[in-house]
Amino acid sequence: MKLIHCADLHLDSPMETNLPPDRARERKAEILSTFAKLVRLADEGGVSGILIAGDLFDSNHVTKKTERYVLDLIASHPDLYFFYLAGNHDRASSLRLMADKPENLCTFDDGWRSYQFGEVTVTGSERPDPDTLSLDPDAVNIVLMHGQEGSGRGEESIRFSRLKGKHIDYLALGHLHEYRTAQIDARCTACYAGCLEGRGFDECGQKGYVLLEADHGKLTHRFAPIARRTLHTVHCDVTGYTSQLDLENRLLDAVREIPASDLVKAVLTGSFAGEAQFDLSHLGNLLSERFYFAKLRDETRLLINPDDYRHDISLKGEFVRRVMASSLPESEKERVIACGFRALMGEEVGL
After folding, report:
1. Which of 53, 110, 112, 342 could share a disulfide with 174, CB 3.0–4.6 Å?
2. Spatial separation of the C-alpha atoms in residues 32 and 38, rounded to whole Å
3. Is-contact 199 10, C-beta < 8 A?
4. Mean pLDDT comparison of 54-58, 209-213, 277-281, highest-scoring range
5. 101 pLDDT above the threshold of 90
């Protein structure tokens, strides 16, 4: 028997934190399309069920259009079972509460609920209490939970130590947006599937789902990428650059292996002398022309010796002296001076 474990799809996420409106709308639609792709892959690949470990939707107020699409998608695959555990984002979504939901949609509530599914028992709770969890030691037990491993309190806190010796074979987790595994005891593997599509630059790298296979009491799993686009954060050290063209080549080298269909945030790092020049707008345009979406962040530091400007009677000298005498933090002084130098050289400045 094959099963798919996924989580944190965040359907109907506005996607507007980094993206302009047209790209945000496009990415919002792509995330829904990726879920549909996952369902088709499951159907064509002989998968019996899909485990959704929380945050199928981005909020409790999902649009009727998206909710209807998801319901139709589930109903149109009657031989494929969907085990949907709501997460902290969609705990009050109407999908799990409706009375006329599709027969192949299995949901959970505050107490432990189990479904016998072939040789596998799928158990889950939206507010899990490990002390009340009781499982058949002879079954292949999959438990769904949504939250982050830790010792703190709160609905999203999970303590792996309290799940030891509970006869769990696979703990299907949601809440963290990257694939991650941990061994709880000799029998139990805990796994975060991550999200299907990265939504921001805090969700870089491959995204996908986990494919599980149960065979004669044994359970194996592997990660499978599915995302239409990948997000990347790359760092480019400008230290010692010799010209604008040299800097362009360094930046393009740093992103050379990234597909044009992906999203990129390039971070300029290192330090440069006070008289050095580079055109941030031009560098940003180079990236934007190359990728589906790109942004440039300047985290460089200015190498400046205030004593060199102590007796300088130029406008630049007066500017440096005033900034250095201000109450700004030292790191802010560097940034202000760097921006001031670029402004004095006629460049476009962004703080």
Report:
1. 53
2. 10
3. yes
4. 209-213
5. no
